[in-house]
Design goal:
This protein is α/β, with parallel strands linked by helices. Helices cover 32% and strands 26% of the residues. The strands form two sheets. Strands 6-7-8-3-9-10 form a six-stranded mixed β-sheet, with helices on both faces. Strands 2-1-4-5 form a four-stranded antiparallel β-sheet, covered by helices on one side. The structure holds adenosine-5'-triphosphate. Adenosine-5'-triphosphate binds next to helix 1.
Length: 231
């Protein structure tokens, strides 16, 4: 994708703490700056609060279950006071989420801002362009159910990027892919994040993912056990 490469500001977490309503502190005063085009990694044992942290940043933390404090910002703009839909943060999960009743093109058209791509012909041309760039030329009319895992992952990323997010959150999006495909999809996702200047926060259990990400690594170890980010 060629446009959208302007730097959009760092993703900044300031003194973020998240506590479950039953009293367990998951995240304890975490501060982190993810520069535009950088992929930072959050690691830690299962159940420590990695996905919960991403939910807080994205704006869909379940407030009946968790209390949270601390600032989330893009550049100087505060996000944590905005509803999720106003944050313009893209998120990818382990299972690519595609609408099963829409074609591949239908899924991608869904993410495309109509204010920018006004005519249907323009929108369809844009969809075909990004599919071709992703090695998926001619996939417009395919049913998502007929795609391989790697193809689904790429379509899911394209749809997220077409919505022009200001930051990208990755919740183990490579977790179910086998090793060669994992490396390929990972490279695809990171290349897009870098090219678009998106600050990106990756949650993973995999040290190879963290190494490939190349940015700061935060190790969550439970209350009081957050190691400061290191390069
Ligand atoms: N909706 C919920 N209601 C109650 N507890 C929850 C809810 N969602 C998560 N939790 C609990 O919060 C804690 C953190 O969960 P979270 O999913 O953030 O962990 P994680 O580090 O991402 O784990 P994993 O690596 O296994 O995905 C866990 O103990 C989990 O059981």
């Amino acid at each position: 994708m060629s446009e959208g490469t302007a730097l959009r500001g760092a993703l900044v977490l300031e003194e973020v703490s998240i506590t479950s309503r039953v009293g367990a502190r998951l995240i304890d005063r975490l501060s982190l700056t993810v520069a535009p085009g950088t992929v930072a990694t959050v690691m830690g044992p299962s159940g420590i609060g990695k996905s919960t942290l991403l939910a807080y940043v994205a704006g869909f933390l379940d407030r009946r279950t968790f209390a949270a404090e601390g600032r989330v910002m893009i550049g100087k703009e505060r996000l944590d006071t905005l509803p999720a839909e106003a944050r313009h943060v893209g998120i990818l999960f382990q299972d690519p989420v595609l609408f099963p009743h829409l074609s591949v093109a239908g899924n991608l058209l869904f993410g495309l801002p109509r204010t920018r791509w006004r005519s249907r012909a323009q929108r369809r041309a844009r969809v075909s362009e990004v599919l071709a760039q992703a090695g998926l030329a001619g996939f417009e009319d395919r049913d998502p159910a007929t795609l391989s895992g790697g193809q689904k992952a790429r379509v899911s990323l394209l749809r997220t990027l077409l919505a022009e997010p200001r930051a990208l959150l990755l919740d183990e999006p490579f977790g179910k892919l086998d090793a060669p495909l994992r490396a390929e999809v990972r490279a695809f996702v990171f290349a897009h994040a870098r090219e678009r200047g998106l600050p990106t926060l990756l949650v993973t259990h995999d040290a190879e993912d963290a190494e490939a990400a190349g940015g700061p690594v935060v190790a969550l170890n439970g209350p009081g056990g957050v190691r400061p980010p290191c390069d």
